Amino acid sequence: MDSLLALASQISRFISEITSSLMVESSCLSYGGFTVSTTRVSTSPELSQMETFVCSIVSKDTAVKYEVPSSHSFCKIINVPFISLNGNHITPADAERFLHNSVHKDSIHLAAPPRIIHSSRTADMCTIYFDIWDSQKGSQMCFFIN
To answer: Which helix (H) or strand (E) holds 46?
Structure first.
């Protein structure tokens, strides 16, 4: 147990050295590993730096993986043309290509294929529903909301 307290202390000091806006609130054994709770969601570069640091201080046979706990966020895009440029109805694959080519592509990590719902039998518009992997606080979803 003393070694876990020392590890938590080392991680906390390292985090305070790399950024002043992120601080460790608590740490404990959970989810089959060691969990560190912080004051805000870590960015990808911060996670990478922390993972590298912990790998350098634990034994080589210890698996280290830093990640943010995740959940699904439900999203939708309304008033999308139902007919594509080639004259066919859009498909989930078309919607996925559209999402991965959008300005938000770095924030979109699909949890399932998109769903296309035609607005009505005669309408030329549809709604695209999709789920993304997100932090429990919705930090990825905030990039979409306007």
So the answer is: helix 44-57
Task: Encode pLDDT of 116-140 as tens digits.
Answer: 999 888 889 999 998 887 766 666 6
Backbone angles phi, psi at 26, to 5 degrees: -160, 165
pTM greater than 0.85 (yes/no): no
The DSSP symbol for 20 reads S
Cβ–Cβ under 8 Å, residues 75 and 134: no
Torsion angle in degrees (nearest 10) through CA of 91, 97, 100, 104: -60
- The DSSP bridge partners found for residue 128 are 77, 116
**Beta-carbon contacts of residue 63 (< 8 Å; ≥ 6 apart):** none
Number of Cβ within 10 Å of residue 9's Cβ equals 12
Reply yes or no on whether the pLDDT at 59 is more than 80: no
